[in-house]
Amino acid sequence: MSDEWNPNDPDATRVLYDLSMWSFDQQAELAAELADDDIPHTWDGAELVVPESHEAVADATITRVEERLGIVYSADAEAPHDNPAAQPIDIAEGVATTEYDLAEWPEGDRQSITRALTRQEIPYRWEDDLLLVPTDHEPVVESLMDLIESGEFAAHPDDLDDDDDTERLPFETLTTFFLAGERLQRNALDADGLEQLLAAVAVAEPDAPPYGVDLRLWKRTCELADELAGALVDDDEPDHDAAMTIAADLHDLLRPYI
Known about the structure:
Elements: E1 14-18, H1 24-36, E2 42-44, E3 47-51, H2 55-69, E4 97-101, H3 107-119, E5 125-127, E6 130-134, H4 138-149, H5 162-167, H6 172-184, H7 191-203, H8 215-234, H9 240-254
């Protein structure tokens, strides 16, 4: 990110791009392109933020990445597959390096940056909590780190250890929320719907999505489910009208995925 541009400056004119339909790998690819093209930028969750002065060149870069990766804005579009040929590249001897102390990063974020560097064919090396990269690649690496630190991504399923898989909720947990919403949007007194809702809420962790579920979708699901449970059981007087509205929102959110 350019030292001359402060995205937090209230007087700075910014352009925002909603890239919530892009996968992590697609966003990482774009982050690398933006850094290579010296385009100042930052990430606010799934939104790319650039100064207005760079809107035209950012548009061109985004279009180029969309065309190269075949990005299609459709809920029915097939998710991109990983490149099985991508392999880690070690740093060559004698190359100047930059160190990043990532001791405070969660394991999932470390796995994400490792995967992003591998796919971008950027040499790297881990020495305990230190990530070493060639100094020449600093702009790209820092752009990728900004993307990951935006907090929108869980580790990719293929990056997780086998032990982690056994601790994750099954995809069917999402189905349980969907069925609860389907029942409760029609009748807030539906006992089976309430039982399904409370059972799923009891095991759901907003930051730990079930296997194969996007983190953003899961967080929003948990948020609506908590609101729905609150409207039905947390207050002295249940608000049935509000509950049916929230249940409908939950049902509509999950319908494309069930």
